[in-house]
Amino acid sequence: MNLGRIGAWVVSLVVGAVYGAAGTISQAYMLWGVPLGLVIAVVACAAVLAAIRLLSEDRWSTLAAGVGMVLTTLVLSGTGPGGSVVVEASTLGVVWTVAVPLVVAIVVAWPDLRSPSSADA
Questions:
Q1: pTM of the model
Q2: In the chain, how long is the greatest CA-to-CA distance?
Q3: Where are the bilayer-spanning segments (predicted)?
C-alpha cells in the first residue's frame, strides 16, 4: 500500500465531509414549494461521488468520500449542544438522511463497465 493511495483516501474523505455538510445545511431550502435544496444537494453529492469514481478508478476512494458524507450528515442531524437542530424530523429530513447512504451505495457498487482490453492498457 503506497502513501499516494492513502493520501487520496484522506482527501476523498475530506471532500465527502465538505459535500455532506453543505448538503445537510442546504437540504431544507424550498422555492415556491419545491424542495430545491434537497434536489441540488443529492445531485451534487452524486456528482462528486461519480467524479471521484471515474477519475480515480478506485472504489475505495469513492467509499472514503461516501463515509465522509454519511458521517457528516449523521453528526449534523443530531441535536446540537444548545438544542439547535439542522435537519428537522420532516419528510425532507428523512429523505435526505436516507438518500445520502443510498447514493453512496449505488455509486460504490456500480459495476466497472470498461472492457477488459481497455482496463489492461
A1: 0.81
A2: 57
A3: 30-55, 62-80, 92-110
